[in-house]
Design brief:
12 helices
């Protein structure tokens, strides 16, 4: 009760028309309730951090410029920085939730064939479909066991079976799950042979899994090639280009100074000092490597899984390794060229 105001603040930042979509999105990640208190606490934390940084770094610089200037500067600084900081944190949370949703969906799809096999076996043993759903739940099925348990409880308390199954299938971005549930619901409503449909669904899921495994195995060479380029070749080439730039700048400065001081040499060209900053090129290289790493992670995910969301879990690894290789290669090449090139 002491922190209810945080929930009210959090709700104020989420428009009403977006709240149902937000809840459905969080359900896919296994979060049952929208954490409005967390949103409110996040905002106040961002405001507190912003105020502290303002008095630590900015207030001393503008304290003697008048009350009006200080007031407007402080207001806009706190507002903008707090919103930007909150947005960055929410972006990282969104990144984390997408990875969690993807892992949950993948785990559910991996267990779906084994679960439907038990359901089919129980149906062949004479149990009803509702009873088969409940009796087929095993702890080893993890997320799938929890979701089917919720479906069974809803049916036992009087809810419609088809509606409960549809609600379950819509909680996950899984085309295989939705197609399987739709086929089963259609057969239940038509009063047909549900066992035959489930067996066909199981067969199709197994074929799909086998086909995906074969496709992933056939494209492993491409993934290794892309990974080698992103993690090693590209950073080393950028480091070599940066070192070459420093060598050219040194040569240009040395030759330009020698020609400028010599009155006996007359050449039709003029060599001036290069004004390009090596640090600027280094920053550009790091941004380019980061962009290449992120794009390559998504490409590898599409090749391997056929889904771009799977690349989110590769992004931190690719970016970190590529930047580390770039920094180490830059230092190594600096030492090598420093021993051979003397200006």
């Amino acid at each position: 009760m002491a922190f209810e105001f945080l929930a009210e603040i959090g709700q104020a930042f989420v428009p009403k028309r977006f709240r149902p979509n937000l809840r459905n999105y969080l359900l896919k990640a296994g979060i049952d309730d929208v954490p409005y208190k967390f949103f409110g606490g996040l905002f106040f934390s961002a405001v507190f951090f912003t105020i502290v940084t303002y008095f630590a770094f900015l207030h001393k610089e503008i304290a003697d410029r008048g009350l009006l200037v200080v007031g407007f500067t402080a207001f806009f600084y706190v507002l903008l920085v707090a919103l930007v900081l909150s947005g960055i944190i929410i972006l990282f949370i969104y990144f984390y939730l997408n990875i969690k949703i993807y892992n949950r969906t993948r785990d559910l799809e991996d267990k779906l064939v084994d679960y439907l096999t038990l359901v089919s076996t129980n149906l062949k043993g004479g149990l009803s479909f509702e009873k088969s759903l409940w009796m087929s739940i095993k702890p080893d099925f993890g997320i799938l066991a929890k979701e089917v348990g919720l479906v069974s409880k809803k049916v036992m308390t009087g809810n419609d079976l088809s509606e409960a199954l549809i609600e379950f299938s819509m909680k996950y971005d899984s085309p295989n799950l939705r197609r399987s549930i739709n086929l089963i619901i259609g057969e239940i409503e038509s009063g047909g042979a549900i066992v035959e449909v489930i067996d066909k669904v199981i067969e199709n899921l197994r074929k799909t899994r086998l086909l995906k495994a074969e496709m992933a195995a056939s494209t492993v060479t491409f993934m290794i090639f892309i990974g080698a380029i992103v993690l090693f070749i590209s950073p080393v080439l950028f480091a070599l280009s940066g070192q070459l730039l420093q060598v050219i700048i040194g040569f240009a400065a040395k030759i330009g100074g020698s020609l400028g001081n010599s009155s006996q040499v007359a050449l039709p060209i003029t060599i001036n000092e290069i004004s390009l900053d090596p640090q600027l090129f280094r920053n550009f290289s790091m941004m380019a490597i980061t962009t290449i790493s992120v794009s390559s992670a998504f490409i590898i995910s599409i090749i391997e899984k056929g889904n771009i969301k799977g690349g989110l879990r590769y992004v931190p690894l690719f970016v970190t390794v590529a930047l580390i290789v770039f920094i180490l290669a830059s230092r190594l090449l600096t030492g090598v060229f420093g021993n051979f090139v003397q200006f």
